[in-house]
Design brief:
304 residues; alpha+beta; Phosphorylase Kinase, domain 1; Aminoglycoside 3'-phosphotransferase, Chain: A, domain 2; 2 domains; four-stranded antiparallel beta sheet; three-stranded antiparallel beta sheet; 10 helices; 47% helix
Amino acid sequence: MTALGGSMIADLAARLGVPDTRPVASPLRLATDWDGQRLETASGPCFVKKLRAGQGAVIDVAAVAEASALAGAIGIAPRLLAADADRGLLVFEALDEADWHWSCIDDLIDERLSPLLGAMKAFHAAGTLSVRRDIFADIAALRALAAGAGANLPHDAVWLGQCVDLIGIAMAAAGSDAVPVRADGAASNVLRGRDGGVLLVDFDRAGMGDPWLDVAVVLNELFQFEEEWQAALELWAGRCHHAEYARVRLYAMADDMYWGLWGLWNAALHRGQGIEFFKYGQWRLLRLRQSLSDARFETWLRRV
């Protein structure tokens, strides 16, 4: 998988200094898990990502490298040049900064939505990955991490967890296909090109999973209103059936639970660093509460 030799990776690791990226947790997740720096090599520039302290508890560098390599090979992501799981390093081809920039939500809801969905479909059809992605197992692991770190959990954390457990039971009973998924809808993890194209970055949660999970987390990031979700589902599948709508709505709730716990856990892990993890986590859990208050919640559980 490596285009750079081990000595070159060691050299890059030694040269890493102040990151080019600055972490921002709220209102968007940007550079919160990895530090990034553009460096020169004998064969040209590259972009080096180094896993931030503590994030190894939720990020498997080898699995991220596998997914990144697969995505780069089919042209929907920057090419992975090298990986060193022990050092927590990923080395990518450097893109022209004049041509590519990370996205905000507004950048993706119009003409770039179709290219984004197209890139997701290409990844789903790209082959297989070694890791299975189970969002409900990931939520359980984060619950334990948050409790162990002394995270400031909300008063209704148990109830929220019980509701999400019901979603997990319904999804397990319904079954699903297993394809390569990113399981991350963050707009900032989509690069927008000057030519209107998109590239996907940060495959931290990628693995084999339900393709509808990918659809759900993207719609959960981009859209607020039901008619927008329905229109996007029609663009994705050519239709918007009750069962598929229920599935994406329920997965979106699980997504909010995961990132809500992630924010509260990181707030405990990085106390005093001025990154608004707690605000981000509270916001995601607030949206989860609002979704659970929908009178159709129990109907959605039966329809998946």
